[in-house]
Amino acid sequence: MKDRYEKILTVLILLVPLLFALRGGYLQQVTGYLFLFLIQGYVAWFLYFKSGQPFFGYSVTMAVGAYGTIVLTTYVEGFLLPSMLISSVAAGLIGVLIFLATSRARGFYVSMASFLLAILFPKLVEAMQSITGGRSGLYFTGLGGIIGQTSLYLLVVVLTALVVGFFVWLMSTKTGQILTLISENDPLTLAVGINTFKYKALAYAIGGFISGLGGAMYVNYTGFISSVDIEVFTTVYIFFIPLIGGSRVLYGPIVGALFVILVPELLVSVERYMRIFFGLTFILVIVLLPQGLVPSFHQALARIRSARASK
Amino acid sequence: MTILLNGIITGLIMGGILSLPVLGVAVIYGITGVPNFGIGVIGVFGGFITWYLLPSNIGLAIAAGVAACFVIGYLVQRVLLTPISEKGGDSTLFFIITVSLGFVFEGLIRAIFPRPNISITLPRIGLLHFLGFSVEGFKIVALLFALGTLVAIRLSEEHTKGGKSWQATSQNLKLAKLVGINTTRVFGVASGIGCALACVGAIFWGSLYNLDLASGWDLGFMGFIIAVVGGIGNIWGGIISALVIGMVMSFSGYLLGGMWQSVILYAIVILVLIVAPKGILGSERSL
Amino acid sequence: MSTWNDGQADGIILNVSGLTCCYGKMTALKGIDFHVYDHEILGIVGPNGAGKTTLLEAIAGTGPIAEGQIEFLGRQIGRWPVLRRRQLGLALIPQDGYVFPMMSVKKNLEVSLHLTRGQRRQELLEYVYELFPVLWERRRQTASTMSGGQQKMLAVAIGITSDARVLLIDEPSIGLAPKLVTRLFDTFQKIRRDTGKTIVLAEQNIKVLNIADRLFGLEAGHIRFDENTANLSKEVVKDLYLSRGV
Tens digits of per-residue pLDDT, C45-70? Predict the structure, then answer.
């Protein structure tokens, strides 16, 4: 029952912003941006919290999807949708490659390798300035020009809902259940005779693909990308979406995304202190609220309710 | 021929400087088993402190920066990291926490200091001439400093009580506690020394090149990956791999251009992680 | 080293009440109550998984305590860190990881004399080398290169250098040849004779009956019996060792 309630609530929360299209303007724009990062956040939710894989290269897969789309479309006329698809597949491949490369290592080497890639990638982009525009970035018209900004926004919202739905469905399949087993006890799952390697590779492929797709949509929506957008901090942001919001509840990442994306917007005036604030918050949340904001919020709410009832 | 020699020398210098954060990483990880990814930024924070106090008195400035980093490292370990490792934190968790810590200090640099991009002017010691080359004397000092620290650590492990406790803690944590060693304090000191080393490295770096908000990550991560290549926790391995990588970087810099330097570096590391996850000289956690 | 009166059991110096220890969801010890008399050799027997190691580690401070109290020399040490318990006079020789592997014998002992100062250091070292001559012979040898029996001796030596009043020893006979076990147990008796230390010995090996003044039996986290060795009925011993234990 509760599970169903969660799923329905999440879908509703995700689809309500469709109405924002009526309002348009800043609200619509920010929400679209939020949703695009929400996609990445759910990839992180899937890959780390549900499948137990310590991957930190979300900015890389997103970048591959984004840059791939631009580059391919530039070189081949009218190739937009296929190039989005190809870049997403490429992103998925990169995910698998990272997995393969680190499968022999253990512990934080895996996290470190993907994090290193996240540091390396913007530098790579800057080094290949002639193709990628480096720090100055590239402008891109893409879908926005074809179907209009509003329709694009609606597409983004629907796509996000579909992605979430996809992950929910995936976790309920045999594959998803095996991934859950792997996240709880990898060696044991292997000992039982399950080919964990195959399933983990699959998880990385799917995660990479969807992240790449999100990146491709991102560059269509915002019309611009540069190496600054895919800096290391981005991958940390993305990881913190499910971490801060709460990974146990389905709509947790939504809260996390709200936090991670909106707070910087609101605190523009004190931008100087932003990083400190974020860093400290991250640490505090990890240490004190390991379940994330949402479950802790529930607990607090329950306490308030019982306090009120006894008055 | 000139290019070759130039490359080697530049490489040695760069490697020498990098060996300091590498040492810092090796020390911290070797003793505490906690990979602290924020020490680069903490070191740069200390570098900024030094820069700020430079006009007053050079010696004081350097001492202040290094001391500050020691204290920060000590406190971070005692207050944050040791309690978490007692409760059984896994390495990914430490990764996230120490990275976040790095962000906090990056933010502090931004908030406290007037400029986000500085360069530290240290006194010129004088030029060394050999083989027709003039090398700034003090550029070599970084490497000597790293070697000196290594020797100092080794000597104290043999001859001082503190050093022996240090070695015992790294070899068998539980037994060290049982024989009455204050392992929490050992961890704190190790962390403090690691950050202080990173600070010295940052100061050197800042005088050779410059320090900005990204330097902390570059130094810290370079320190880490070089340590990994050499076999993390293995101090000698760390210094050797720092020198080798320093040279590789300077050569690739000449051949391909500055932008590709870091790319080559990270590519090497990823390669090493694939081929030899324990590092080329192997052995974790041995000093 | 002064000698003391053999056979005189004095007051209770260690008192454990209601001790419950858990690892995650599994409860290893369930409300244990027992006490240790000064100068006695107490044997804790029981099969694998009974909770012997958990018990000793809880008392020493290297293992978790969910509930209960531990009173030593009149102080409640349940929340004390290992260091403080050691300073008060409680030392543990663990079941494994009992030496510093990459240090010489000499250095192992130097390190374990960490809390001791001055003249006493020398006295303890001399006593240890006297008890275990082989350690003096091999004092420059790296610990990990010694045989199992020699490493065990080093472990006991480390425990002695603690100058503690109570030695907790966790299954010292594991992996030792029978002759060595007998020698080791004899050494424990000698230590008690020479120094008056209280020894709490967790063991599966039946030979512990030879040296223990009292035994209590632990099984699945509960105490099954608590008897003076002399009073133990043959039935209980048979029951313990033949059907469940060694």
Answer: 888 778 889 999 999 998 888 889 99
Q: Is A135 helix (H, G, I), strand (E, B) or coil?
A: coil
> Judged by CB atoms within 8 Å, which residues 77-116 of B form the interface with A?
80, 84, 90-97, 99-108, 110-111
Residue A25's alpha-carbon distances to A21, A31, C226, in angstroms, are: 8, 10, 80
Calculate Rg over the CA atoms of chain A.
Answer: 20
The yes/no answer to whether this complex scores an ipTM above 0.90 is no
Nearest to C42 by CA among C183, C211, C182: C211
B162: chain C residues, CB-CB within 8 Å: none
- pTM (2 d.p.): 0.80
User: Could you give the CA distance from residue B150 to residue B154 in angstroms, rounded to a whole number?
Assistant: 6
Residues of A in CB contact (< 8 Å) with B are: 54, 101-102, 104-109, 111-113, 115-117, 119-120, 123-124, 126-127, 129, 232-233, 236, 239, 243, 272-280, 282-283, 286-287
Closest approach of chain C CAs to the CA of B123, in angstroms? 43
Name subunits touching B (3+ CB pairs < 8 A).
A, C
Between residues A111 and B124, the one the model is more confident about: A111
Is the Cβ–Cβ distance between A260 and A237 less than 8 Å?
yes
C62 vs B: CB within 8 A: yes
The predicted model gives B85-112 an average pLDDT of: 80
Q: What distance in Å separates the CA atoms of residue C19 and residue C59, rounded to the nearest whole number?
A: 10
Q: Above 80 in pLDDT, residue A171?
A: yes
Could you read off the pLDDT of B64-83 as tens digits, one per residue? 999 999 999 999 998 888 87
Q: How many CB atoms within 10 Å of residue A138?
A: 18
- What is the C-alpha separation between A97 and A63, in angstroms, rounded? 16
pLDDT of residue A103: 75
Tokens of C158: 């480390």
Q: Does C98 touch chain B (CB under 8 A)?
A: yes
Closest partner CB to A108 (pick from B92, B104, B274): B92
Do C94 and B165 make contact, defined as CB atoms within 8 angstroms? no
Cα–Cα distance, A51 to A46 (Å, whole number): 6
Min Cα–Cα distance to chain C from B161, Å: 8
Instruction: Encode A227-261: b = buried (16+ Cβ within 10 Å), e = exposed.
Output: bebbbbbbbbbbbbbbbbbbbebbbbbbbbbbbbb
pLDDT at residue A248 in the model = 76
Give B6-31 pLDDT, tens digit per residue.
777 777 777 777 788 888 887 887 77
Q: What per-residue confidence (pLDDT) applies to B135?
A: 65
CA distance B120 to chain A (A): 23
For the cut 50, the answer to whether the pLDDT of residue C246 exceeds it is no
Strands C12-23 and C67-72: antiparallel
One-letter amino acid of C160: I
In C, minimum Cα distance to B174 occurs at C62
Nearest chain B alpha carbon to A111: B92
Confidence of residue C8 (pLDDT cuts 50, 70, 90): very low
Return the residue in B25, B80, B95 with the most chain A beta carbons within 10 A, the one to mutate for interface testing: B95
* SS3 (DSSP) at B282: coil
Q: In Å, how far are A32, A34, A45, A247, B100 from A256, measured between CA atoms?
A: 15, 10, 11, 9, 16
Q: Which of A146, A131, A133 is nearest to A81 (CA)?
A: A146
Residue C5 has pLDDT above 50, yes or no: no
CB of C52 closer than 8 Å to CB of C205? no
**What is the model's pLDDT at position A166?**
92
DSSP A270: G
Which tokens sit at B159? 């001859």
